[in-house]
Amino acid sequence: MILSSGTKRPKIHSSAYVAPTAIVSGEVTIGADCAILHGAVVTAEGAPVTIGAQSVVMEHAVVKASGGSVLQYPLSIGERCIVGPHAYVVGATIGDGCFVAAGAKICNGATLEAGSGVALGGIVHVKTRLPAGASVPMQHIAYGDPATIAPPGKAPEIAAKLDFYADVFNLEAGDDVRARAAETYAKFLRKAHAQDTVLEEHRNLKPPPRRSGEEPPPTQQTQVDKVVDVMMLELEEMEHRRQQAIKRQKGG
After folding, report:
1. C-alpha–C-alpha distance, residues 155 and 181, integer Å
2. pLDDT tops 90 at residue 190
3. Which residues are registered as beta bridge partners of 57?
4. How far is CA 247 from CA 234, 241, 244, in A?
5. What's the pTM?
6. What is the pLDDT of residue 122?
7. Which among 58, 95, 147, 239 is least surrounded, fewest beta carbons within 10 Å?
């Protein structure tokens, strides 16, 4: 479904694929040869969204920008990036050739420099900068500029160092800050979407046939191989730790 938001409407390259069940709303620009798959949500709420050429937003991922009168969080995704299923990317800057795995979360003001990656369930927190080529392991948390990588058990310690509600909602901390955030955000969203209008569906064009003997660009294959290698190493490390824990338990 393609929607305008007030006077803002999506600009989708004619070669891009947008699934019929995807939602693209507002000031969104989708580059050449992109693929927006079923159930994905791409929405600009007060700030623009830009997705570079040959990038993929997979099933049920949410990528969005957010911008009120005080804070502006546009979203920029570079060329040849993958945003995995059920990932959540809001108000961030994603460099070229990045990989955001299934279930990962990239928060407002975060930056992923070129060629970096976030594995399954990883988090890149508010205003964090992940250097070029760096990787956040599965379920780990990146925070700070430059990023420090911490295991899930450090989440309370990290939260204490952040001023999340001030950075995201422009609200001072307090006992009722969560309720005030909901009230403020609901008001903003009602205003942002008050004039949403369904437009005609994007016409998906069949890509030209590949010429005989033609292969995908080597850079693409290399990037995919690197991502797979990193994920396999992380899985092997987790299994090694599990086996060591079992041995210690039996020894006790």
Report:
1. 21
2. no
3. 36, 83
4. 20, 10, 5
5. 0.78
6. 97
7. 239
220 pLDDT exceeds 50? no
More confident residue, 221 or 105: 105
Fill in the DSSP letter of residue 160. Answer: H
Average pLDDT, the chain: 86
Give one DSSP letter per residue of 187-215, joined into a string: HHHHHHTTTEEE-PPP-PPPPPPPPTT--
The Cα–Cα gap between 125 and 220 comes to 27
User: Which residue bears the tokens 């952040």?
Assistant: 162
DSSP category for residue 137? P
The closest alpha carbon to 65, from 89, 40, 91, belongs to: 91
Q: Write out pLDDT tens, residues 145-167.
A: 999 999 999 999 998 888 888 88
Helix (H) or strand (E) holding 99: strand 99-100
**Which residues have C-beta within 8 Å of that of residue 117, sequence separation ≥ 6?**
98, 99, 100, 101, 134, 135, 136, 227, 230
Whole-number Å distance between alpha carbons of 112 and 91? 12
Give the pairing type, strands 17-18 and 35-36. Answer: parallel
Peptide bond just before 151 cis, omega within 30 deg: no
According to CATH, what is the number of the domain 2-198? 2.160.10.10
Domain ranges of the chain: 2-198
**Angle 46-53-126 from CA coordinates, rounded to 5°:** 45
